[in-house]
Amino acid sequence: MFSKLNKKWTLALLSVALIIPMVLSACSGKTTATTVTATQTSTVTATTTPVTITATQTSIVTATQTSTVTATTAATYPKVTSASVPLTNLNSAGATFPTPLYTKWFSVYNTIYGVQINYQAVGSGSGINQITAGTVDFGASDGIMTDAQVAAAETAHGPILAIPMTSAPVAIIYNLSGITTGLKLTGDVLAKIYLKTITKWNDPAITALNPGVPPTYADIAVVHRSDSSGTTYIFTNYLTKINTDWSTKIGNATSVNWVGDIGGQGNAGVAAMVQQTPNSIGYVDLTYAIQNGLSYATLQNASGNWIAPSVASATAASTGITLPDNMKIMITNSTNAQAYPIVGFTWILAYVNQADQAKGVTLARMLWWAIHEGQQYNEVLGYASLSPAAVTKAENEILSMKYQGQPILALSK
Amino acid sequence: MRSLNKTPTDSLSSARIRSIQYSVFSLGIMNGVKINLKVSNPERFPIKPGKVDFRNRNYNRLSDLVFPNFTLFFALLMVAILAAMLIILSIDAWPSVLKIGFSFFVNRTWDPVKEIFGALPAIYGTILSAFIGLIIAIPISLGAAIFLVELAPGWLRGPASFLIEMLAAIPSVIIGLWGIFVLVPVIRSPFESWLQNNLGFIPLFQGPRYGSGFLAAGIILAIMIIPIITAVSRDALKAVPNQQREAMLALGATRWETITRSVLPYCRSGLVGAVILGLGRAVGETMAVTMVIGNGYKLTASLFSPGTTIASKIAGEFAEAATPVSVGSLIELALILFTITLLVNVIAQLFVWRMSKVKESRD
């Protein structure tokens, strides 16, 4: 019935049908590519129409403010100037968790400045390895680099920066019939559930926190991430701070020795497992909980307030607390009264001393853009904006980037 | 005799191609399993004279010089790739071999924080889930193959085998998604609860029922390897000469006796090859298994318990593995998987070889 000839022709037709749109899209992509060059005296701001601006030492490039994207925020943050070099394409690799946001940023940045930034979502560990090896222009990580990792990177290419880009709340999701909202948990109870010392939903520790909620007489099915991830890093960091048993037995890492029951592959896998398994509990990035319509718990924060995960309560986690200059801080269990306790930054990793001037300028400018204008895309995509305090720290980090000993960016007066 | 032959002539060549394709893509290294197919219609494949007539002026010496060297190069290239893989894996696994040593094979914990790595649960999970898959898949696919070749009416044969082979074309991530959303709830609620209520005294069916676990992984694997085993064993059955059947029937044997006493023994080696090909795929399958096995790092007798396989452990942890020891441990896991599949392949070869020896001596 399916003779060889027919199969061949079908295959040939199919491949032609596939190739034609690919070629077409590739061609159209090429035609829109533009080169934007920064000049010494001016700041290049948004243009939506593709234009080519060539650098001349004396000319001042005035931006055509046709873009609605930048029009609202353009005036509210400090402007920077840089050396007059053509911007260039960048390669990067790192964490999977902020990928949707970075993809959005880099595509918007590409339409404005015509710079292609390739981001490989290969995981934080790989991102750290690749920036250490120098195979990428910047890396990205959800976790803080260990001392050994920092030492390896510094011997190779000098001091390395971890610049926060966004923070993310990790939601505790559950599947209990009849209880769709408002389950209350403390960090200690959560740690005990994940240590399997609390094994039933009607455990006094849980029922005491939830008066008026009918207890469920069932075993808790504990779901965790089977793959190693930044989400797990943030989650275990919180439990390590809260519970001494957790910190001694399990610890804080992107993947740990779980006592719990089921492992789900990725955020989506955990969300699906919790959705499928009655009486289960799990943790995912808030976006996934909202997308899947899952119930999530309200947690007690360090000030004793009951806080639900949201982008606002995640931003609050980095507000009003002491942030170190290098921004290597886990903001879990924040002392801010309005903060959700399981929140973590995700960082872009870049070297202070940039070897290539064009790349350094592009990178510094892009990062400057990301922590200011880029932030408006965060909440739409389910990521928290950086708090003003965090932005200030990040600004200082970007201003510290150097090419041949000279700062790459300078604040324009 | 030949007029009675109901085997379509062109399907044989395609069967050969397919068997080679399966053996190549199933694991990359499984390209050696021989499936004894016999050409039943020699006139469709006229054999060229064995010796080249050098007096023939049209004979192109250059092509005869170039072609063998080219093919030799490609053959050596494959061997070189295999060797390179082994060497690179061994080098990268070395930090973990140095630090952990032999306890890697017997330790039961996988703790990246304290850097204690043990492979036993992953090895156990790999073998157990593949074993469950085989137990379910063998009867179904052999039954289907026998039906398709021996019993099915002509109009059903083509569409049915086409559909079975279509099953092999479904990407494993899609099978995995189907597993999470359709299969796992079904396994949890009627299937596992029935097993536990009726056979709960057996340790295999004890413990909490999550749905995802070894059993779910085994069933998913069975679904994934049934098309391969069916297709290859169907081709093996097709290659049995009709004389075998006709002789049995002429002696007054029933259909059942013909198939069990004559047809199946004749193509035993082909059937074993089919099963081993299936096993090869089951051992290396990653995505679909990861999605339904539950990924608990445990060593329990219960089939309901979440477990893990070597492939899913590597896939899950490799992206974020940071220290040389944790990367090394994952690569050592890969080496173990490599060895397991190599062993499976060698055993299959021996099996097939021994069977054909026995058959030859009997002939």
* Coarse shape of chain B: globular
**Which runs of chain B of at least 5 residues are low in confidence (pLDDT < 50)?**
1-39
Biggest sheet descriptor of chain A = 9 strands, mixed
Overall average residue pLDDT of chain B: 81
Number of strands of chain B: 2
DSSP, total strands of chain A: 16
What Rg of chain A do the Cα atoms give?
Answer: 24 Å
Our measurement of the CA-to-CA distance between the termini of chain A, rounded to an integer number of angstroms, reads: 77 Å
Topology at a glance:
The complex is a heterodimer of chains A (413) and B (363).
Chain A (H helix, E strand, L loop, with lengths): L3 H29 L35 H4 L8 E3 L7 E5 L4 H15 L3 E5 L2 H10 L4 E4 L5 H11 L2 E16 L8 E2 L1 H9 L8 H6 L11 E5 L4 H13 L1 H6 L12 E3 L1 H11 L3 E6 H6 L3 E2 L1 E3 L5 E2 L3 H6 L26 E9 L5 H16 L15 H12 L2 E2 L2 E2 L1 E3 L2
Parallel strand pairs in A: 2-3, 2-4, 6-11, 7-8, 7-9
Antiparallel strand pairs in A: 1-16, 4-13, 5-9, 5-10, 5-13, 11-12, 14-15
Chain B lengths: L8 H19 L33 H40 L9 E2 L4 E2 L2 H32 L2 H16 L2 H28 L14 H25 L3 H9 L4 H12 L1 H17 L2 H6 L17 H8 L6 H39 L1
Antiparallel strand pairs in B: 1-2
Can you describe what's shown?
The complex is a heterodimer of chains A (413) and B (363). Chain A has 413 residues and is of the alpha/beta class. Chain A is 37% helix and 17% strand. Chain A is built from 14 helices and 16 strands. Chain A has helices at residues 4-32, 68-71, 99-113, 124-133, 147-157, 187-195, 204-209, 230-242, 244-249, 266-276, 286-291, 311-316, 357-372, 388-399, and strands at residues 80-82, 90-94, 117-121, 138-141, 160-175, 184-185, 221-225, 262-264, 280-285, 295-296, 298-300, 306-307, 343-351, 402-403, 406-407, 409-411. In chain A, the strands form four sheets. In chain A, strands 2, 3, 4, 5, 7, 8, 9, 10 and 13 form a nine-stranded mixed β-sheet that branches. In chain A, α3 links the parallel β2 (90-94) and β3. In chain B, strands 1-2 form a two-stranded antiparallel ribbon. Chain B has 363 residues and is mostly helical. Chain B has twelve helices and two strands, in the order ααββαααααααααα. Chain B folds into two domains: 2-59, no CATH class; 103-362, MetI-like (MetI-like fold). Classes of the chains: A alpha/beta (413), B mainly alpha (363).
